[in-house]
C-alpha cells in the first residue's frame, strides 16, 4: 500500500488480506510460507493462517501439499499484468519441478495462444538421454505432439476439430505417423483425461501431458517427454497418477 495514502479506519482486516494476496502474487514461482508472510508484513502468524484459509476457500491462493508454501490460485485474476504464461509459471511451475526432480525427464509447460501452444518453461531432467522437442519461447500448432493434444481434448469437439483442420497441413509436414493415428491419440485423451502418444514427432520417443486450467478454461498443458524404455514403462503410471492427483 502507498505510504502516502491514509488508512481507512475499521478496515484493518481488509488491508491485511489484500497485502497478503499482493505478496503471494509478487512471489510468483518462488511461493511463500505463512512465517515469511508474517515477517514481511508484520502480521501475527496465527492471523496470517486464518486469512490464508479464507483466501484458499475463495481459490485466490493455493497451498502446495509437498512444501506447504502458498502460490496464486485459479481465481486470482486481479493483476492486469499477469498474462496466461505468467499465470502458468506461477501456478504450475512447482508441480513441473517436482515431477522433473522425481522422475528425471524433460518437463515442459505450455500456454495456449490461439491455434498454437507456446513453451513457457522447460525443465531438464537428470536422465542421461533427454528429449528436447522445444525450448522456451518456441511455438507449435495445437495437435502437434502429445503436449498439445491434452489441450485439444479439453475443448468442445467442434472447436478442436476446427483448430485441427486449420493446423493439419503444418502438422503433416513434421508428423512421423499418419494423421489417423493422431486422431486416435486425441480420442484416447478425451476418454482418459490426459494425453499419451509415441513416435509422433521423433521415432523412439513417448510423451504424456495433462491440460492446465485457469478456472474452467483450458489455458495450457504440462508435458513430460522421454525416450521409450523399460524404466519409462515403470514410471509412466506414477507420473500420470501425480498429474491427476495435482490437477484433477
TrEMBL record:
Q: Keywords of this protein's UniProt record, alphabetized?
A: DNA-binding, Transcription, Transcription regulation
Q: Does the keyword Transcription regulation apply?
A: yes
What the entry lists under Gene3D superfamilies is as follows: 3.30.450.40, Winged helix-like DNA-binding domain superfamily/Winged helix DNA-binding domain
Q: Which residues form a coiled coil?
A: none
GO molecular function of the protein, one example?
DNA binding
Q: Which residues form the IclR-ED domain?
A: 68-248
Query: What Gene Ontology terms for biological process does this UniProt record contain?
Result: negative regulation of DNA-templated transcription
HTH iclR-type domain location: 11-74
InterPro entries, per the entry = GAF-like_dom_sf, HTH_MetabolicPath_Reg, Tscrpt_reg_IclR_C, Tscrpt_reg_IclR_N, WH-like_DNA-bd_sf, WH_DNA-bd_sf
Name the chain's protein.
IclR family transcriptional regulator, acetate operon repressor
Question: Lineage of the native species?
Answer: Bacteria, Pseudomonadati, Thermodesulfobacteriota, Desulfovibrionia, Desulfovibrionales
Amino acid at each position: 500500500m502507498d505510504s502516502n495514502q491514509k488508512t481507512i479506519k475499521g478496515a484493518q482486516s481488509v488491508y491485511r488480506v489484500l497485502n497478503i494476496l499482493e505478496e503471494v502474487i509478487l512471489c510468483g514461482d518462488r511461493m511463500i510460507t505463512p512465517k515469511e508472510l508474517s515477517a514481511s508484513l508484520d502480521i501475527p502468524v496465527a492471523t496470517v493462517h486464518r486469512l490464508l484459509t479464507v483466501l484458499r476457500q475463495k481459490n485466490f491462493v493455493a497451498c502446495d501439499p509437498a512444501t506447504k508454501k502458498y502460490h496464486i490460485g485459479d481465481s486470482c485474476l486481479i493483476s492486469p499484468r499477469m498474462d496466461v504464461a505468467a499465470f502458468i509459471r506461477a501456478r504450475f511451475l512447482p508441480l513441473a519441478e517436482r515431477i522433473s526432480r522425481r522422475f528425471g525427464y524433460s518437463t515442459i509447460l505450455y500456454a495456449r495462444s490461439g491455434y498454437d501452444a507456446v513453451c513457457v518453461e522447460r525443465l531438464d531432467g537428470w536422465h542421461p538421454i533427454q528429449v528436447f522437442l522445444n525450448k522456451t519461447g518456441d511455438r507449435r500448432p495445437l495437435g502437434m505432439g502429445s503436449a498439445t493434444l491434452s489441450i485439444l481434448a479439453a475443448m468442445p469437439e467442434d472447436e478442436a476439430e476446427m483448430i485441427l483442420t486449420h493446423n493439419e497441413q503444418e502438422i503433416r509436414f513434421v508428423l512421423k505417423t499418419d494423421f489417423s493415428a493422431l486422431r486416435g491419440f486425441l480420442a484416447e485423451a478425451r476418454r482418459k483425461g490426459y494425453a499419451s502418444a509415441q513416435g509422433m514427432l521423433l521415432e523412439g520417443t513417448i510423451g504424456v501431458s495433462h491440460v492446465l486450467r485457469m478456472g474452467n478454461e483450458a489455458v495450457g498443458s504440462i508435458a513430460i517427454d522421454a525416450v521409450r524404455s523399460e524404466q519409462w514403462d515403470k514410471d509412466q503410471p506414477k507420473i500420470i497418477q501425480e498429474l491427476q492427483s495435482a490437477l484433477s
